[in-house]
Structure formats: C-alpha cells, structure tokens
Amino acid sequence: MVKITDVARQAGVSPSTVSYALSGKRPISEETRRRVAEAIRELGYRPHAGARALASSRSNVLALVVPLRAGIHVPVVMQFAVSVVTTARRYDHDVLLLTQEEGDDGLRRVADTALVDALIVMDVQLHDARLGLLRSLERPSVMIGFPAEATGLTCIDLDFMAAGEACVEHLARLGHRTLALVGSPPEVYLRQTAFAQRVVQGFTAAADRSGLASSVHPCEASPAAARLVAEQLLREQPALTGVVVHNEPIVEPLIDAFEQLGLRVPGDLSVTAICPDELAESVRVPVTSVSLPSAEVGERAVQLLMKKLGGGAVPEATLLPPRLTERASTAPRTLA
Fold this sequence. Notes:
The protein has 14 helices and 12 strands. It is of the alpha/beta class. The strands form 2 sheets. A 6-stranded parallel sheet has the order 2-1-3-4-5-11, with helices on both faces. A 6-stranded mixed sheet has the order 7-6-8-9-10-12. Helix 12 (251-260) links the parallel strand 8 and strand 9. Helix 1 (4-11) packs across helix 3.
C-alpha cells in the first residue's frame, strides 16, 4: 500500500507538505502542488478514509435511507440504489445503505455522528414523519419522492401524476372508454406513499377530463391476487377495454389472467404499465409503458447532493417528465 511518505519522497517534499496539499490547510506554491499531484497519480496513492475525514471534516460517505417496508418491490428499489452508489463513486464518495424502518430516531442517530456527510431519502409518504427533522438538519439531504408539502426540501422523482395521465391519454386516443388502474399493494396506499398516490391522482384526473368510466384497484404482488382482480374487473366492469398497471410483479400474471378468462391482449383489452423498460420489453406480450427512470433519478439525486455539499444552489423540485413507449399490448378499441 502506497503511503504518504512514499508520495513525499517521489515529489521531493516533506510528508507534512503532502498533507497540506491534500487538505488545503496551508498555502503551498503551485509548483509544489503540481509535483505532489504528479506523484499521487504515478503511485496511485489514495488517502486513508479516516485521514481524509480529519483533513476535511468530512467522511466522504452518503446515507441512502430506504426502509424496506411491506409492499415495496425490492428489485426496483435496488435499481435506484445501484445508480446512487455508482454515481457517488464518481465523486469519490461511498454509500451507507439504511434499510430499517426507524423514522426520526434512525435519521437523527446517523446525522448526529460523523458517519455521513449528507442523506438521500426514499419511500417518501405524502405526510412523511421525517420532514421536520430533514428541514432542521445541518447536513444536506435530497428526497427521491415528493411529500404533500415540499417547501424547504430538495426533491426529485418521476412526475408520477403525469405518468398516470399519460397512460390514460394514450388509451383514450385509441378509443377506450372504460378503464381500470391495477395499483400497488393495499399497504402502500394505507401509508399514503407519495408516488402511488400521485399515479392515482393522475389516472383519475385524466379519466374524468375525458369523460371515461374508471376504477382503482390495489393488488397484492402475487399471481393469485392478479387473478382475483382480473375476475373482479370483468364482473364489475363488463365494458372494460383498457387497464393501467402500477405494480411491477403482476404485469405479466395479470395479462395471463385476463387471457385465461377469455380476453385477448390487445385484441379485446389494451394494457399499459408504469415500470422499468426491461420489464415491459420482457413480457410475453411486450407492454406499452411509461419508463421508470431509476438510473437517471439516482444519478441526479447524487448530483444535487454534491452541489449542496459544495455550497451551490439547487432547485427545490425536479420532476422528470414521463416517457411512454408504445409496444404490442395496446391497440384501438374494437367496436362491437
């Protein structure tokens, strides 16, 4: 392992001079700084994390707070986490992943120590109990998600309300007049999880504007639950010809259930979804979908945080517009 003394010897300076060049605590000449930088590059020296923290009063660690609550689809959450981690590494930061449901206590415990420099918070509720603490912390934070009242916070996410609207508007353009939203598991709505609530708001508002018949159905993330919802929809809405799915694990099971009940997709029933592109493309009948931009959201959340750590100004709200891709699961409504 390369040590600071090796860098000093290579650059022809004292170890303390190398330390000052790294920390900026004392002025050194540009020529000396250049020699130290060249020695660091040639030797591949990386300061010890503890030494960096002492020199800069920073840990170079970000906290990613994502409580794995009931109803959360872990594979999608991990896509966000991977994006945060890989982007943080480009800024020479590591990521501490906090998955326990600890509310204010867990956040305060981490924020009151020197463990992390800043926080990224996920699984945001409309009336999130953590908001007061996040507003009061000296450490900067970014929320992936929008609470009902976001003033004084930095938030970024897909515009889920617009995503719900986009799915309805696509189906309406194809002539569909009776729609259903098959949504997240019931506990997600009971917690008033922000992204799920926004989809319902957008779906309902767009359907009402177009004069469409519509209904919303929470659904557990299992094939058996998908079958029950399909049966309920056909029993209660016999004129149903369009479905929006916002529940990744049941996209394909729901299509299978409808087809087992005698409806062809898209001949009799058009299906759209809000989900990752790779899921929409992998289904037996590729699904028209609004993409879930987890990589972009995670990357931009870290970029916002880095700018805040550097003292820069950032927008309070960053909403990514929905992108709908047409695939084989939607078609014009067939007139009886």
